[in-house]
Amino acid sequence: MHKSLFVVLLAAGLPALAQAPTPLTAHLDKVSLTFALGANGQPNYTINYEQKPVVQPSRLGLVFQDGQGFDGALTLTGSEIKDVDETWQPVWGEVKNIRNHYQQLTVHLRQKAAPGRRLDVVFRVFADGVGFRYEFPRQQALGNFVVMDELTEFALPADHQAFWIPGDYDTNEYLYTKSRLSAVDNSAQVKKSEEIAVRVAPDAQAVATPLMLKADNGLYINIHEAAQVNYPAMQLHVDRASHRLTARLVPDAVGSKAFLHAPAHTPWRTVVVSDKATDILASKLILNLNEPSKLTNTEWIKPMKFVGVWWEMQIGKSDWKYANSLDTLDAKGQLIPTGRHGANTANVKRYIDFAAQHHLGGVLVEGWNVGWEDWFGNWKENVFDFVTPYPDFNVQQISDYAKGKGVQMIMHNETSGAATNYEQHLDTAYQFMNKYGYPAVKTGYVGRIIPRGEHHDGQWMSNHFVRVAEMAAKHHVSVDMHESVRPTGLSRTYPNWMASEAGRGNEYNAFSIGSPPEHETIMPFTRFMGGPMDYTPGIFKLQNYEPTGKRRVQTTLAKQLALYVTLYSPLQMAADLPENYNEHLDAFQFIEDVPVDWDDTRIVAAEPGDYLTTARRAKGKDEWYLGSITDENARQQPVKLDFLTPGRRYQAIIYADAKDADWQKNPAAYQITRQVVTSKSTLTLRLAPGGGAAVSFKPL
Ligand code: NOJ
Ligand code: CA
C-alpha cells in the first residue's frame, strides 16, 4: 500500500515527502516489525510479539573501508511489501513438509551525501520471528567494497537470562553459561578452557550465536543468522548496562571483515520468538531463509547411522598415529609401529561385523592415512595427502569386506587446520572416496588455520566450507564437518552437507571435565538452531572408560538413548565400542531401531537448561520414537500420546532409568518395559538425575 502512494508522491515531485514516509511495518500473526529512519537519517527497526517488545528501536548499518559505507544519514527512496506462503520438502530432516509463510518488507535507501550509494534492507516477518538482511544492488557508485563493521543492533528491553558461550573467532566448543545479560563476561572461561586447542576471544563481553534468551515476561528469544555465505560469522557484543547487543563480525588476517562486490548481500540476521519454548525448537525460520537446494539430483544423499574406530582413540585405548615419530626409522628406513594403531584392517573388520549384525549403515575410521605422527600443533602444510593409507590399513580389502556385508565406509579427512592444503588435494581425495565406495566424509580442522592469520569463522573459511560441500557434491559424497563454522541452515542449499560439529559434543567427556547434565537440554536451543550436529551420542560405558578412571559421562544410559531423538542429525553415530554395546544388547535395540530421517516432529515439552521431550514419526511409516531428557534434577514427565494415529493400537517399548538410576551413582541402571497404548494414553516417564527415557511405538 505505502509503495503506490509513495511512488505517486515521488512522481509528483514532492521531495519534502521523500524524506520521511516512515515508520513502515510488516507483520504476521503475533509478530510485527517496524522500520524507521531516525531524525539523523539513521535507519532502525523494532520487533514486537503481540504487545510485548522483543527488540526495541535498534540501529542498522555498515561501515566500509573507504569511509563511504552506510553509517551516515540515509534517505528512503521506496519500499515494497509482499506476502509469500509456500510449502517445500527437504531432502531429509525432522519433518516432511515445511511451510514458508512470511510478509516481506523491502526498503530502498540512499546515502544523503555523495556518492549517494544505494542499500536495500529486506525484512521477512514470520509467525515465529523475523529475518532481515542488507542487500547491495548493482550500481555505478559501488563496485568492490570492504566491510569493516556491521552496526546491526538488537536492543533488548530487559536484562534477560541468556544461555551463552564466548564469542570466539575459532571455536564453539565451550560449555554454556546461564546468566543475566548484565553478567556476561567470558574471560575466565576462555582462559581455563584448555581442552579447546585454539581460543581467540578478544572481547570479554562477546557471545556466540545462536544465543538463547529468556525474558522475565515469559518470552523466549533466539538470535542467530541464516545462510552465512561469503561473509564472516556474526557474534554479539553485550552492553551489560543497557542490554543492547551489537553485531561483531569475525575478522580476517588483516582485520577486515568481508570483501564484497555489488550486487551482493549479507546473511540474514534472525530473531526467533515465542511465548512457548517448544516453538523455538519447532521453528523452521532459519531453513526457510536459506536458498533451495542447488543440487538437482539428490537421490544419492542417504541419512544413516554409523559406528567408528574413533571413541577408542578418544579414550586412549588406541591411537590415530602408527609410529611415535616420523624422524625415527628402522634399519629398512620404515616407520616403527607402536602396536597401538587403531585403524588396522583386523580392527576395522570387527566394526564392520558389528555394523552388519545390527543394521547400521556405516563405519567411520580415523587415523587410517599417513601423517598423524605430525598432525597437531605445527601449523604447517602437507601433513596429510588424504589418499595414502598406513601399511596396516588395507583399503581395498576393507572396502571389499564392507561391501560384502552391506556396510558403507565413511572417510575421514583431518586437515589439521591447513585448509589450503586440503583444497589442493580435494579433487584427488574425493576421487579416492569414489574409487573405494565411500559415500560420506568426516572432515576436521583442529588447530590454527592456514592461510595463517585466518580464523575458523571468518569470510575465507566460510567460503572454504562451501567449496568443500560443492566439491563433495560433484563426487556424490556427503559431508560432516568438524571444527567448522556453526551452521546457519545451509544444509537446505547443500543437502549433502549433512552435519557439522561446531559445538561441544560427547567427545569432551573422553578427554576433559566433560559436560554437565544440563548440557544436552541447552544444545537444541543454541547450537542446533542452525542445523544438525554430529554430537556422537550412544556411550554405554559411562564410567571407567579411560585411563585416569576419574572421568564420567554425566548422563544415565537411558539418556544416551533419548539423545537419538532429542538431538537431530541425519548422520548419527553409535559412538561407543562394540564390546560395550555387547554388554547391553537389549538397550542397543533402540539405537538399532531409531530412524535418522522423519516425516513429523512434535516438541512435547521443553525448557532450556532443564528438560526436553521430543516425539518424531519415522519417514514413510506409522512408527513413532520419543526421547525425554532432564538435567541434574530427577523429574516426572507426563506425555500425552495424542500424536499417535487415533483408533490404532501400538506396542510401546520403554527404555527408562531404573528406580535407583543416577548419573553419578548408578548410570547404567535401566529397565525396558512393554505396553500397549493408543492416542488416548498418557505415559508418565520417571527421569533420574541426569537421566532420560526413550520409547519406540510400532503399530500392532
Ligand atoms: C576433532 C574431532 O572433533 C574429533 O571427532 C576427531 O576425532 C579429532 N578431531 C581428530 O580428527
Ligand atoms: Ca572437535
Automatic annotation (TrEMBL):
Residues 597-698 form the Glycosyl-hydrolase 97 C-terminal oligomerisation domain. GO terms for molecular function: hydrolase activity, acting on glycosyl bonds. Residues 1-20 form the signal peptide. It comes from the Bacteria. The keyword Hydrolase applies. Residues 30-292 form the Glycosyl-hydrolase 97 N-terminal domain. Pfam families: GH97_C (PF14509), GH97_N (PF14508), Glyco_hydro_97 (PF10566). Its EC number is 3.2.1.-. The keyword Calcium applies. Residues 310-502 form the Glycosyl-hydrolase 97 catalytic domain. Keywords: Calcium, Glycosidase, Hydrolase, Signal. It is an enzyme of class 3 (hydrolase). Its cofactor is Ca(2+). PANTHER family: GLUCAN 1,4-ALPHA-GLUCOSIDASE SUSB (PTHR35803:SF1), GLUCAN 1,4-ALPHA-GLUCOSIDASE SUSB-RELATED (PTHR35803). Monomer. This is Glycoside hydrolase family 97 protein. It comes from Hymenobacter bucti.
